[in-house]
């Protein structure tokens, strides 16, 4: 399918360029869509730097852990976010945590401080939110009924977000309305992402929906921020951390900066968490022995009672299961970067301005780093096996300066969600689910969960 244009060190995939001509790109897309094309290309290139020939647009696909270390760590300053996707997203998420430069750094420091301190400060809120969401579900479903996995996981995630982000300052209904509006605004940017050269003055599909949705977002967030700013008492929640923090010039963050950072958090954190939890049910349904082990651990740790913050740390096997879900269903299947200056990666010249697409999804399937990569095996995440692996062979949360700030928050809430659900329900997924590549890795069709309360 593909041809090799240059071989610097024969037999060593990290030192050659692999090219995929346009007709093969189109053939691959027709046969299996974007994800099918990626999987086919990944199998052929086996970690070699790959150039996809798409006419005028010729991105490099980067999957080898050594190359990822080069781009994300060793020469990270040369690879920035300035791709069309990030530029379009900037209209929604601003130039704080979702940007680059000094304002991004100031925002990042605040979010890291809030989330690392928060892991214990708002952990009670997280555990209570999980308990409440699962109890609601128990009340709503009749034995054997099926529910939409993604809808239910989104509901749980948003219950957790409210105390963590807002100190439960807004009613849950408003938090859900905010999340829905952020999702609509984000989806409406698709045309602007695809056609970044079209000026804003020229209307594109999605523009009106974007304006309406951002009006809703601001209508909910800005009054909330103003009230919190003038309140006498502020809590340990993330919005308070932002309000008490300073920007790159040492000034308090403005209302718009705080609002855009919160929107960025919804975009980065909510859907990815809900989707990963959805994939966890798909994976467990296909592996009865692993599911039984998760249930045994849930019963032993929770003891039939509600989840508590300290349980998250003790759910060791469940966390390994989640780590393996993040490997096989890497939400951020493609992470774009732009090269600022010309560079050489593994002997291959990458020109200034080139687009690079890093693909954790493909890296996680490289047989040179993962034995039987398609097998679901949480045993890959024992401390010993993690230590024995290339540090960049596993990067569902990215790496380098922009590495995810919500990783430990995700594992904490997700472990509690899985354990609480397992201790309350017998869970089946009646129809197998396959992934498709949208901005995140989504199921091709609705994933049903058949739930039977355990009594
Ligand atoms: C399964 C869940 C999640 C996955 C797979 C995930 C994945 C990622 C990845 C791959 C990146 C790096 C993007 C890049 O390099 O351009 C990232 C960044 C980020 N994530 Fe997550 N994430 C998850 C959950 C969360 C949560 C729960 C939050 C917030 C509470 C969050 C907030 C962020 C933020 C703010 C960034 C940007 C950091 C920066 O640019 O400095 N993520 N995430």
UniProtKB/TrEMBL annotation:
Matching InterPro entries: Cyt_P450, Cyt_P450_CS, Cyt_P450_E_grp-I, Cyt_P450_sf, Cytochrome_P450_Monoox
UniProt keyword list: Heme, Iron, Metal-binding, Monooxygenase, Oxidoreductase
Domain of life (superkingdom): Bacteria
Requisite cofactors: heme
Presence of the UniProt keyword DNA damage in the record: no
Transmembrane segments: none
Any one Gene Ontology molecular-function term assigned to this protein's record: oxidoreductase activity, acting on paired donors, with incorporation or reduction of molecular oxygen
Record keyword Metal-binding present: yes
Residues that coordinate or bind heme: 404
Similarity section: Belongs to the cytochrome P450 family.
UniProt protein name: Cytochrome P450
Species the sequence originates in: Streptomyces rimosus subsp. rimosus (strain ATCC 10970 / DSM 40260 / JCM 4667 / NRRL 2234)
